[in-house]
Automatic annotation (TrEMBL):
It comes from Sphaerisporangium album. InterPro entries: AB_hydrolase_fold, Fungal_lipase-type, Sec_MonoDiacylglyc_Lipase. Residues 215-293 form the Fungal lipase-type domain. One of its GO terms (biological process) is lipid metabolic process. Coiled coil: none annotated. This is Lipase family protein.
Length: 398
């Protein structure tokens, strides 16, 4: 880390501790609380049995069940820690502990929220970043703060630059997240600093008996960009690499915008882990993975891309000739691995086009029309639905 980065984080810590830093930890409700009537566990509840073992032992990435879990986690990160912890318990992480780390400094265009979910034993952790909140003006301002910025350390290319807004928001919560991960890894000397009420992070909940063995990072929209950038930091910043690189299993992102220029993307592609284990999911015509546009300068994705293709016209025709209107397949498609990543939107014309596509999907007569760009396809529920494996219950285990 450079002297300028040390200075930035020192100033940021002073600002955040003055009132911009919020932190809260919760324990998931028990299965008895989640199932007040009927059997405690059924064929569909929890959604995945032995989920911790699955996360510990997964060899191949992406894994369809893990992708479903991560998409669900990223979607519910727009809520509070109680809700996210409850959903993760329903998915199969019984008695998990969820810690929210949040900072906001409006004048600095910072609105950063992350959640660290630890399994009951503490052996599995999921770091999830919240994406752009629809009604959060600062989130939107940080999204369009696309001025290129060099990272505080070299990633095999001294000229590589990243999205300034994403980089700033990752750094705003990074030192608190790293303290939480140090504790999860068994470092009893790690402290999180005081909260607004003067308490320390240890008051958020009991320490896990085991040490962190498997870490997954995820997020939707800008949260996906922050997740991917944190993955890069863990791999390439020495102090983080030594402690966490061997524990990091994969980064799953959904509807993620680009975070760096072609030099940055090429440097990431040269890292085998980032090339193979950063997995980006793009739903149909989602406009956000095409952003920033070429008007903002050159940007490029890195990692592996999975694209969900929806044949709207074919699905509409099949629904029309079906004997029952219940046979509608308006959004039925399939995931495909893409060799070439999603490219930048040329200019800015695609932005109003994506808004028009959103309106078109709300009317039956225009619903089946294909779109070049769509903001409707960016909604997290579409990612969750498309990634739910056949025969698997929804996230509530209904």
């Amino acid at each position: 880390m450079t002297a300028s980065e040390d200075s930035f984080e020192a100033r940021m810590r002073d600002i955040l501790q003055a009132g911009g830093l919020r932190r809260r930890g919760v324990q998931a409700p028990s299965y008895d609380e989640l199932r007040p009537f009927g059997h405690r566990e059924t064929a569909g509840f929890p959604v995945y049995k032995n989920l911790e073992r699955k996360l510990l032992n997964a060899v191949e990435q992406p894994d369809p069940e893990i992708a479903h879990l991560m998409a669900t986690c990223a979607a519910y990160a727009y809520s509070d820690p109680e809700t996210l912890s409850m959903i993760m318990a329903r998915m199969g992480l019984e008695d998990n502990h969820c810690q929210m780390i949040q900072s906001s400094v409006d004048a600095m265009l910072i609105s950063s929220t992350a959640f660290l979910i630890l399994s009951r034993s503490g052996r599995v952790g999921i770091l999830c970043y919240r994406g752009t909140e629809p009604l959060n003006f600062i989130n939107w301002m940080s999204d369009i703060d696309v001025e290129p910025e060099r990272m505080g350390y070299q990633i095999s290319d001294p000229c590589a630059t990243v999205h300034a807004g994403v980089y700033r928001n990752v750094r705003a919560t990074r030192y608190e997240i790293m303290n939480a991960l140090r504790r999860a890894c068994g470092d009893r000397q790690a402290t999180g600093g005081p909260s607004a009420g003067g308490d320390h992070y240890e008051a958020d909940g009991p320490r896990s008996e085991g040490e962190l063995e498997a870490l997954y990072i995820t997020g939707h929209s800008q949260g996906g960009a922050m997740a991917a950038l944190m993955g890069v930091m863990i791999r390439h910043e020495r102090k983080y690499h030594d402690a966490l690189a061997d524990r990091l299993r994969a980064v799953y992102t959904f509807g993620q915008p680009m975070i760096g220029d072609p030099n940055f993307a090429d440097a990431c592609q040269s890292d085998e882990f980032l090339r193979e284990n950063v997995i980006r999911y793009v739903y149909d015509s989602d406009v956000v993975p095409h952003m920033p546009s070429t008007a903002s300068g050159p940007f490029r994705h890195f990692g592996r891309e999975m694209h969900y293709r929806v044949p709207h016209l074919v699905n509409s025709l099949m629904s029309m000739i079906a004997t029952s209107r219940c046979a509608s397949q308006a959004r039925k498609g399939r995931w495909e691995a893409r060799r070439r990543p999603t490219g930048q939107m040329p200019g800015l014309l695609g932005i109003p086009m994506s808004a028009m596509a959103y309106a078109a999907r709300k009317f039956e007569a225009t619903r089946s029309l294909p779109a070049v760009y769509s903001i409707d396809d960016h909604l997290p529920q579409h990612y969750v639905s498309a990634l739910t494996p056949a025969g698997v219950q929804n996230e509530f285990g209904d």
